[in-house]
Specification:
The chain is an alpha/beta fold. The chain has eight helices and 15 strands. The protein has two domains: 240 residues, Metallo-dependent phosphatases (Purple Acid Phosphatase, chain A, domain 2), CATH 3.60.21.10; 127 residues, no CATH class.
């Protein structure tokens, strides 16, 4: 039985510049500490190797401390063999990065920088496909088909890139053949690039990122524990939780008459460990003017509980009638502005987008009026 952990897309050094305060630093540190978490899983489950299928670093020029500290943490777990594959973010085009890695890598770190067989254990051979550039423009795993290994050898492929629609990039020209494992006689093909764990087929898997960095996948970061009994046997694959932050998209759909504050509270009750949660709420449906204002206040209050919180309400329509405008003002300039906006929300000559802009402006005017009242 050969047992290993398959991971990818650590993106060490990622800046998270779209956030403020101490959150970017916390997210960067979580990506570093996941190295130890992977090693702990290897120790617990008896895995002798950890395969990192590309994008270990977020850029081709990671800061020296990011690089050195990562290697030092891997060296600290010397009982585990680490295999690092260049991905599209840290491709071989970054000559200085890989020169530094060669000179600094400890004995238990293998740099899979050539498309050539690597012995992982007796009768276990790794066939890596390192990314030569950010966009190689061809299937770099093709060489595996003709790679010779001795009879009875477990063959494991390691690659980074897209298979059909599974790509984190909008355009992927270097598509890996989805049947590469069958073509090359691989017992397992470990892939990186897609940040969510997914099985392409029983022998081909994306591990996902061990720490999520976007709202795309709505899962905690994971790695895969892979066990192969012998050459030709189907691999046993188990998901292992590795992430410490949860990026979650929630959907709040309101009907006219619903209490928006209660509905939001019920929705957020599903979020555990709020300090470690980044939550984006997508509000839709219909609510009254007062309800929209109350919802905005409730969202602003809830935001303090989370690592990061935002509400998107572009799809939330504010139901408003003339009598509701009294909540803004009974006369004067504010009432005139509110009446004009209300007329625009009901004007079929305007586009749906223009009517929604007027709707949102009316809601903001109501919120402002409540603040100064």
């Amino acid at each position: 039985m050969f047992r290993f952990i398959h991971s990818a897309d650590l993106h060490l050094g990622k800046r998270f510049g779209n956030f403020s305060g101490d959150l970017p630093g916390r997210l960067r540190e979580a990506r570093h500490t996941v190295i130890a978490r992977l090693a702990e899983h290897a120790h617990t489950h008896g895995a002798s190797a950890i395969l990192l299928a590309g994008d270990t670093f977020d850029t081709e020029t990671p800061a020296p401390d990011v690089r050195r500290q990562a290697l030092a943490e891997m060296a600290r777990h010397s009982a585990v063999q680490w295999v690092i594959l260049p991905g599209n973010h840290d491709s071989l085009q970054a000559a200085q990065l890989w020169a530094n890695m060669r000179s600094e890598a400890p004995e238990n770190v293998v740099l899979a920088v050539e498309p050539a067989p690597v012995a992982l254990a007796p009768h276990v051979t790794l066939l890596p496909a390192p990314c030569t550039t950010r966009r190689p423009g061809r299937d770099l795993s093709e060489w595996m088909d003709a790679a010779a290994t001795a009879d009875g050898t477990i063959r494991i492929g390691l690659a980074h890139g897209a298979i059909t629609e599974f790509s984190e990039d909008k355009v992927a020209s270097d598509v890996i053949a989805p049947d590469r494992a069958a073509r090359a006689g691989l017992d397992y093909l470990a892939l990186g690039d897609w940040h969510g764990a997914i099985a392409v087929n029983p022998r081909t898997h994306y591990s996902g990122s061990p720490e999520q960095d976007r709202f795309k996948h709505d899962r905690m970061g994971e790695a895969l524990l892979v066990s192969i009994a012998e050459q030709g046997a189907l691999p046993q694959v188990e998901r292992l939780r590795t992430g410490s932050f949860f990026w979650q998209s929630l959907h709040l759909h309101l009907l006219d008459g619903d209490d928006p504050v209660e509905a939001l509270a019920a929705l957020l009750a599903t979020a555990a460990d709020r300090r470690q949660a980044l939550v984006r709420v997508h509000a839709s449906g219909n609510t009254r003017l007062a309800g929209r204002t109350a919802l905005g206040e409730a969202a602003a209050n809830a935001a303090h509980d989370f690592a990061w919180f935002a509400m998107e309400n572009d799809a939330l329509h504010t139901v408003c009638e003339v009598d509701d405008l009294d909540q803004i003002d009974r006369g004067g300039a504010l009432r005139q502005a509110a009446a004009a906006l209300l007329a625009e929300t009901q004007d079929d000559r305007l586009s749906a987008g223009e009517r929604e802009i007027a709707n949102a402006a009316l809601a903001r005017l109501h919120a402002f009026a409540q603040q100064v009242a």
